[in-house]
Specification:
There is one protein chain. Strands 1, 2, 3, 4, 5, 6, 7, 8 and 9 form a nine-stranded mixed beta sheet that branches. The protein has helices spanning 19-27, 47-57, 71-81, 100-111, 145-153, 183-192, 227-245, 250-267, 278-289, 291-296, 302-313, 315-332; strands at 6-12, 34-41, 61-66, 86-89, 95-96, 115-124, 141-144, 164-167, 197-210. Helix 1 (19-27) links the parallel strand 1 (6-12) and strand 2 (34-41). It has twelve helices and nine strands. It has 333 residues and is α/β, with parallel strands linked by helices.
């Protein structure tokens, strides 16, 4: 084991408080044929200097410094640097167990799979375990592409590139879409159309660290992450893909579309819920056109349907009430 080289790409931006833990977990891998690519995406807090210090300690670490362009831009720069037979990704916030790349490489080689996924858990900044978002299988299993897409549409699948190991050739002609925040989902859909499926390993060896500072968390009542726009646009893209290539998944895709718009409606600031906001106006029109789908779709929960119908009927009023309820819960909690 270890005859094939693995390139692990780590996009880095102002990660001085967590990068060393991430890199140490990579250096501790039992898989020997590893190169670790730290792509400093224009950090301003000393992270770039930390990358150089870490590289001086381990010859497997290579560093590239570039102007800030976002995580996708950094990953694409890493892909241009990579010399490995297999490609992996790790976010600088996160860390992995020592066996992860040996296990994934074993599965790739033994099963002749194009992609292998390790299961993950989520922890807070203090290391406290959070509820699982993606439930790991009991045993190693192969999931064909159509089934994997169905799991994504039900929000049970893992679209992250960080939990996966890829054959290098998969990225021929593929790069991460820059300027988007739902980039993993978008690119994974493109890749799934070209491969038979993904092997999923049961061990939760990848640890996602949920930090208080997050691109999806609002800093003021009027700030709003672009991710909530991207998830709606990607929902439209997956609907088109499903109806063209996987018609048996139509109802799942409708459910996904409605759910993503519900997520948008629950996060868009009240100040942006106005008639001259074209995106908001189009989301509202979509929900009104699909009231029937909201009612009959078997894959939406009763709670989902209730919120969707209320937000379709009186979005600003419902959001105001919802905001007051959440504030009260936070005070009591």
């Amino acid at each position: 084991m270890g005859t094939k080289k693995i390139s692990v790409i780590v996009p880095v931006y102002n990660s001085i408080d967590c990068l060393e833990r991430c890199v140490r977990s990579l250096c501790a891998q039992t898989y020997e044929g590893l190169e670790i690519l730290l792509v400093d995406d224009g950090s301003t807090d000393g992270t770039g200097e930390l990358c150089e210090r870490l590289a001086a300690e381990d010859a497997r670490i290579l560093v590239r410094h570039k102007e800030n362009g976002g995580a996708s831009s950094a990953r694409n720069a890493g892909l241009a640097m990579a010399s490995g037979d297999y490609i992996g990704f790790v976010d600088s916030d996160d860390y992995i167990d020592s066996y992860v790349y040996e296990e994934m490489a074993r599965a790739l080689e033994e099963g002749k799979y194009p992609v292998v996924q390790i299961s993950r858990d989520e922890v807070d900044e203090e290391g406290k375990r959070l509820p699982d978002i993606c439930i790991p299988p009991e045993n190693e299993r192969f999931c064909d592409s159509e089934t994997f897409i169905k799991e994504l549409l039900l929000h049970r699948g893992d679209s992250s590139f960080c939990t996966k190991l890829f054959l290098r050739e998969i990225f021929a002609g593929h790069r991460f879409p820059e300027g988007e925040l739902n980039e993993d989902f978008r690119l994974l859909l493109d890749i799934l159309q070209e491969i038979a499926g993904i092997c999923i390993l049961p061990k939760q060896g990848y640890h996602v660290v949920c930090r208080r500072e997050s691109t999806t968390r609002k800093r003021t009542k009027d700030s709003f992450s672009r991710v909530f726009l991207d998830i709606v646009e990607n929902a439209d893209k997956v609907q088109e893909l499903v109806d063209r290539k996987y018609p048996a998944l139509h109802e799942y895709a409708v459910r996904f579309n409605l759910y993503q718009r519900l997520d948008y409606m629950l996060h868009v600031p009240l100040s942006q819920m106005r008639g001259d906001n074209a995106f908001y106006h189009n989301v509202k029109k979509y929900l009104r056109r699909h009231v029937g789908d909201t009612v009959i779709n078997p894959y939406l929960t009763r709670k989902n349907k209730t919120y969707l119908l209320l937000l379709t009927a009186a979005p600003r009023t419902v959001r105001g009430v919802h905001g007051r309820i959440m504030k009260l819960r936070n005070k009591m909690g």
